[in-house]
Amino acid sequence: MTSGTPRKETMSHVPFNSQALENSIPENVRLLPASVRTSDQTLANPSKDIQKFLKKDLDVGKLNHIDQYLWLAGAPMPPKPLNYQIATSRLIAVDERIDMHMVWEEPRQLHLKPIPRYLLDPQFWETHLICKKSCCASRKDTISTPGDCPKEIKKCALGFLCSYMALIQFESDYAIARQYRLLPDTITWEMWLNLVHQLLENDVCNPANIDSRYLFGELRLSRLNTIYAIHGSLLSGYQYTYQNYTELFHDYLAPLTVATVYVALVLTAMQVGLATTVLGGSVSFQNVSYRFTLFAIFGPLGGIVLVGAMGVFAFTKNIVNTWRVKRQKLASYEQRVIQNRIP
């Protein structure tokens, strides 16, 4: 099988047993999602490699990449509480992507990642987020081997909890969080009070304890996209927001349309000026009018050509990426089918 879809193989046994629908799974598994996607978009069991899952679920490296420019996208202060977000007509979008947590986009939509169950379990912290190795035995800020020490993931986890300490300040915030299922159903208001008070007593939100991303609250997506565009990701930006090419052309051509209207107004004013005795006899004004007329002719045309080229580039890039993913996935499917046939 080298092309087309993989051939279906009939399973020779029942895919699950009677215990699958019973409450008999270990507690640490109960705290995790049902499945996760790997780097090649294959579904996997998160409990098989919990440290790898935690890095994917909590790591904010995408924002750390532009850490020094985050002040351009948001203020260096905790996020405003949920009641304020609702009062200012912001819509809350539940989003499990950690790099979209506390990121807002037009029209007034704020992305929030719900608190995972495992972050509210002390035993899970003790087992998977507290490093007991020599690299963290002292108070020195040593750099550990990537994947070997959960210290950086712990900072992300603490920062994430700090963000919710600011988002859920009042009982009205708690009610909003329950409405959008941002908190597990088992957490009552009294439990949340005790948790926040303990976190405050332990100085959890000290900048030394949290990831630098959480020194900032809400971040504006349009500015994050601009920052990433300057860094070389012109089309994809920080988060690709276009669902189709019509949206892409609309966003880029709308400012060009406004600029064209302004240019038309300036040309009209210049025509009136050239009809007067003072400006009509001015060589300097005539030269400026000549140059601006050429700009008015070729400027918008060049802008349209540039936007069209960006659209063609985006289309070509998407086609190439889709073809590459299709080839890799079908090869992977074929390999798995061959392995299943081996007795």
UniProtKB/TrEMBL annotation:
Top-level taxon of origin = Eukaryota
UniProt entry tagged with the keyword Membrane: yes
What InterPro entries is this protein classified in? Answer: DUF6601
Q: Which UniProt keywords apply?
A: Membrane, Transmembrane, Transmembrane helix
Q: Where are the transmembrane segments?
A: 252-274, 294-316
Keyword Transmembrane in record: yes
Descriptive protein name = Uncharacterized protein
Q: What is the lineage of its organism?
A: Eukaryota, Fungi, Dikarya, Ascomycota, Pezizomycotina
